[in-house]
Queue: 2 jobs
Job 1
Amino acid sequence: MPKAKQLTVSIENRPGTLASVGNALGNAKVNILAFLSIASGVEGHVQLVVDDVKKAEDVLEDAGFSYSEKDVLHIELPNRPGALGELARKLAAKNINITSGFATTVKASRKASVVLEVSDLDEASRLR
């Protein structure tokens, strides 16, 4: 299973902050492959998987955004009932815990894009 870098960007919980992150990356031609935005109170964060991590880091720094980086699984699953359960079962069989995850697909698409933070990334990346 492929590894990827996830960037977690700290943002304010107010209108326009996600637009600022998205526009800064878009203007630099960095494509966002997956994202999750979470906010509580006055603060929030955006978890991003992008096509060019180095360029994204440069853009975020230049725009004054604070961010951290973490290795995650970024995989495609078949867009069908039970696919996520099968993956989770394989990970559990190797005693690998899923600590965070998000996914998306488009109706009638054959694949879903899944991002998972796991307790043992090296072992998880070897699973098929």
Job 2
Amino acid sequence: MKILAKPIDMVSWTDKAGKINPVRFRISNPDESETVVKIDKIFTMEKEKLAGNEMLCFRCQSIINDQQKLLELKYELRTCKWILWKM
């Protein structure tokens, strides 16, 4: 997996206990188009600190261009921002 660290638009839902569940995200391409990626499966969700910022790290699986890909998404708790970390 390659580190990308790109900001993304995310659609997610939260259960009564406050657990975040990502559903799909939109990423901007270099040619100024946008791609929507549906998250098929979430393998793990861990809490971590990156440069002093607490983050939730999601390891997921998606199908992009008819290929199964592993992704790592991060949610920064302090700023409520989503990042496509690895793909």
